[in-house]
Amino acid sequence: MRRPRSGGFTLVEVMLALAILGLSLVILVRSVAGNITAAQDSFYMGVATDLARGKMFDIEEHLLQEGFQETEEEEDGDFSDEGWPNIKWKYLIEPVELPDLETLMNLSQEQGGEGQGTGAEGEGEEATSDLDKFQSSALGGMLGMLGMGGASTESGGSASQTAGFLQMGYPMVQQVLKASVRKISLTIDYDTGVHKETFKVILYVTDPAGMQKAMGALGADQ
After folding, report:
1. Suppose 180 and one of 2, 53, 80, 211 were both cysteines; which one would form an S-S bond, judging by CB atoms 3.0 to 4.6 Å apart?
2. Contacts made by residues 103-109, CB under 8 angstroms, sequence distance 24+
3. How many CA atoms lie less than 13 Å away from 115 in the CB half-sphere?
C-alpha cells in the first residue's frame, strides 16, 4: 500500500517565489532611492534659492554703495561663510543698451506685416504705415510720452518729419537707459551628491539719480 505524499513546494515553485521576491525588492529599493533623491534635490533647491536671494541683496547693496560703473562687473565665489562650500555663485553686472533705431523699426515692421500698395503712391503709404506701426508699439508709445515720437502722420505730419524726430530723440533714450539701468545675471551651481544642478536669476535695477543726472547732462549739451 502506497503512503500518501506529504504537502510541500517543489524546487520550481521555490525558485519562482524567490524570483518574484527579488524583483519586488528591486522595485522597492529603486522607488525608495528615487524618493530620497527627489527629497535631496528639493532640499538643495530650497537652500540654493535662499542663498541666491541673499546674494542678490548683497549685489544690490554693492551697487548702492559703489554706484553704477560704465563697464561690466564680474565676480565669482562660493557660500563657504554660510556653511555651503559646495554651492558656487557667479554674477555679471552689465549696462543695458538698446539696439539702434533701424533695427527696432525693422522688428516692428516684421511683427506688423508688410505694407500694401504698388507704385510711387503705394511706397509712400507703406512708409507711413511702417512709422505708424512703430509709434503704436510699446517703445514708440514711450517715446511719444517723452515728447520724442514726432508728429503723427494722421494729424498732417509727414513721414520724414516723424523719422527725424525719432532719430533725434531715440539716442537720448539710449544714453539715459545706459546710464541708469543695469542687468544683474546671477548664476548658482551646486552638487547634490547625485548630479550637478545650475540655475540663473536675472534682475534689472535702476538708479533714479543717475537717470536725472544723464538727462541733465543731455539738456546741458543741447
Report:
1. 211
2. 104/134, 104/139, 105/130, 105/131, 105/134, 108/133, 108/134, 108/137, 108/140, 109/133, 109/134
3. 20
**Are 94 and 202 spatial neighbours (Cβ–Cβ below 8 Å)?**
no
Task: Report how far residue 116's alpha carbon sits from residue 106's, in angstroms, rounded to the nearest whole number.
Answer: 16
Strand partners, 78: 88
Residue-wise pLDDT tens digits, 156-188:
455 555 556 666 677 777 777 778 889 999 999
pTM of the model: 0.61
Cell numbers 553704477 correspond to what residue? 68
User: Taking the CB of residue 90, how many other CB atoms lie within 10 A of it?
Assistant: 16
How far apart are alpha carbons 113 and 127 in whole angstroms? 12
